[in-house]
Write a structure and sequence with these properties.
It is globular, with a radius of gyration of 14 Å. Strands 1-2-3-4-5 form a five-stranded mixed β-sheet. The chain has a single domain, classed as Gcn5-related N-acetyltransferase (GNAT) (Aminopeptidase), CATH 3.40.630. It is α+β, with helices and mostly antiparallel strands and about 130 residues long. InterPro entries: Acyl_CoA_acyltransferase (IPR016181), GNAT_dom (IPR000182), NSI-like (IPR045039).
């Protein structure tokens, strides 16, 4: 893998929603650029043509605990180690930032990615607003 993961990579508001949609997720266009103002830090990767091909972030109070979210890799670049490189770079920044605990939720098919990066699977719960 020859792509560089960059902390707080300059990203235009439309780029993450576009990447989300390419990965088959809801674009959540209204979240950007507000997300960049509210999260602790983010990381991104660009291809040689300057297209955003990977993104993720850590949010929270920034005291002891943070929450990693939206680890997204463009479908054409999946299974090349880019997701793991993104997660590991975010964890390095979390440590530099002073976080002692980082949590995340993920689909069970991604367990090996996160355990290779140092996460310990555990039980938990998720609350969602009823729509």
């Amino acid at each position: 893998m020859n792509h560089k993961v960059v902390i707080n990579l300059p990203i235009e508001p439309h780029e993450v929603p576009t990447l989300r949609q390419r990965a088959g997720w809801d674009g959540r266009h209204a979240d950007y650029p507000v997300l960049f103002e509210r999260c602790n830090f983010w990381a991104g990767v660009r291809e040689v043509n300057d297209e955003l091909i990977a993104f993720g972030y850590v949010s929270g109070m920034g005291l002891q605990h943070g929450y990693m979210e939206d680890i997204i890799v463009h479908p054409h670049y999946q299974n090349e180690g880019l997701g793991q490189a993104l997660v590991e770079k975010l964890l390095e920044e979390a440590e530099r930032f002073g976080l002692e605990i980082v949590t995340l939720t993920y689909d069970s098919r991604h367990t090996s990615l996160y355990t290779r990066s140092g996460f310990t699977p555990c039980s938990g719960g998720v609350w969602r607003k009823k729509v």
